[in-house]
Amino acid sequence: MKCLFPILAAAVALPLVAGAFDVGQPAPAFVAHDAEGRAVTLAALRGKTVVLEWTNDGCPFVGHMYSSGVMQSLQRRAAAERVVWLSVISSRRASKAT
Q1: Which residue has the higher pLDDT, 47 or 16?
Q2: Three-state DSSP class for 16?
Q3: Strand locations in 1-98 (E)
Q4: pLDDT at 75
Q5: pTM as predicted
Q6: What is the per-residue pLDDT for 97?
Q7: Pairing state of beta strands 5-7 and 31-33?
Q8: Which of 74, 70, 92, 96 is nearest to 83 (CA)?
Q9: Does residue 80 fall inside a structural domain?
């Protein structure tokens, strides 16, 4: 499974966890880096529908969703509708995508 932009959690998660957002309001600005080190910014995503998926390779629920193919199916459907899918990898060490 290869996600569109696997990114580090810190830049995105901290403002969200702190409750620094309101549903229906613009998301807080962020800059994070993908698995290849390229910058991903909120500004570059303006006007697009974005899914933020927090994933952890040690979580049994995540394992089930990926081993059953459910998550890949959702990602394909989202991509067909031009949705940007950002996977925030919260595992201690990110596993290689296959």
Answers
A1: 47
A2: helix
A3: 5-7, 31-33, 39-41, 50-55, 84-89
A4: 93
A5: 0.61
A6: 52
A7: unpaired
A8: 74
A9: yes
The domain in which residue 73 lies consists of: 5-18+29-89
Q: 18, 20, 27, 19: which is closest to 50 by C-alpha?
A: 27
Q: What is the signed CA dihedral for 51, 53, 95, 69, rounded to 10 degrees?
A: -80
What does the block give as tokens for 15?
């403002």
Name the domain count of the chain. 1
Instruction: Tell me the CA distances in angstroms from 63 to 35, 69, 71, one per residue in order.
Output: 20, 10, 10
- Residue found under tokens 């989202």: 78
Radius of gyration, CA atoms only, the chain: 14
CA atoms in the 13 A half-sphere facing the CB of 41: 3
Answer whether residue 23 is part of any domain: no
Query: In this structure, is residue 36 part of a structural domain?
Result: yes
Please check whether residue 51 lies inside any domain of the structure: yes
Cα angle for residues 42, 80, 72 (degrees, 5° grid): 85
